[in-house]
Amino acid sequence: MAVQEAPLTAVAAQAGKPLSAARAAQELGLKRSEFDLAVLLGHIRTTVDADGSHRRVAREELDRLQAADRKQETLSERVRTAGTTEGAQLMDISPVRFGKLARAGFITPVKFYLNRYRAVVWLYLAGELAELAIREPGLLTGRSPQKMRAVLDAGEDRRARNWRSRRLALLTRQTEDPWEQAAITSSVLDPVQLAEVVDDPYERAYLNKLRPALVGRHGESPPTREAMDRLLLADDPDEILWQRVSLALLLDEAREHRTAPRPETRRSLPPPLPETPRGLRAWLRRRKAPGDPAPS
Predict the structure, then answer these.
(1) Amino acid 218: pLDDT
(2) CA distance 34 to 131
(3) Cβ–Cβ under 8 Å, residues 151 and 180
């Protein structure tokens, strides 16, 4: 009997062990990109390793998700994305109308990628598009609303700005640490803007250390990296001002929480005394200390 108990205990311990992101995605039937989006959107609760290097999914969370998928809309449907052509079909409008809605900010992208021509391909949550079509039928046909026409006539394109705002909000929701939240906001400001808001070099270094990647960066060519970098930084004056103010407020809270780490400053020790001749040391020991009574 004792011989069988050890393997059973090991199996039970393994069954209760949190799963890696790759294993959890496999068991949920998701692509890794779909899993990462589901985590970002808050559909999957994760834990972080002690060193903060990897996210894991508890077995209980996996069981909850699998049970929910059997009762309602599947997790893969909740993270399903659509581009302009498919999105227009979902909303039963033309791709031209869809593009106008997106550029005017009525539809917010959830992710993007660069195609082989380094053109930006924006992706939207299919569920949100369907909900908008039901909620705002007036946007789909007829004359464009005045607000939409004003944005388009001014030549604005709010897709990148709205994506950045959404991305920051989703990332901020994943942490309660004020310094990490400040680092997330700082990630859309260029070095000059950041230095103007955060004049302490040690605080800037700490923010840079905590700053997350807004998107995955793997094997990019220099031109692709340059094109993507332009999408990651705030470029509209109103947006820049908003993020600067947000960062300043978050910094005030972070400083109250704890100070940014700084190099340890060692107290300078006095230089060692020179070696004293033995006879002189004896004389110093015999010497009368201040306040001693004079000999009679």
Answers:
(1) 62
(2) 20
(3) no
Count Cβ neighbours within 10 Å for each residue of 102-128 and write b for 16 or more, e otherwise.
Answer: bbbbbbbbbbbebeeeeebebbbbbbb
SS3 state of residue 83: coil
pLDDT in tens, 65-119: 988 877 667 889 999 999 999 999 999 999 999 999 999 999 999 999 998 888 9
**Percent of the chain, pLDDT > 90?**
61
Q: What is the pLDDT of residues 129-163, one digit of tens each?
A: 999 999 999 899 888 889 899 999 999 999 999 99
d(CA 10, CA 41): 34
Only one residue has tokens 């033309």, namely: 94
Angle between helices 237-257 and 178-186 (to 10 degrees): 160
42: left (phi > 0), else alpha (psi -120 to 50), else beta?
Answer: left
Q: How many CA within 13 A on the CB side of residue 241?
A: 3
- For 269, list phi and psi in degrees, rounded to 5: -85, 145
Sorted by sequence, the CB contacts under 8 Å of residue 247 that are 6+ apart come out as 182, 185, 186, 189, 194, 197, 198
User: What tokens appear for 97 in the block?
Assistant: 């109308």
Tens of pLDDT, residue by residue over 230-287, are: 899 999 999 999 999 999 999 999 999 999 999 875 444 455 544 444 544 444 344 4
Q: How many CA atoms lie within 13 A of 245 on its CB side?
A: 6
Cα–Cα dist 205/198, whole Å: 10
Structural element, H or E, at residue 144: none
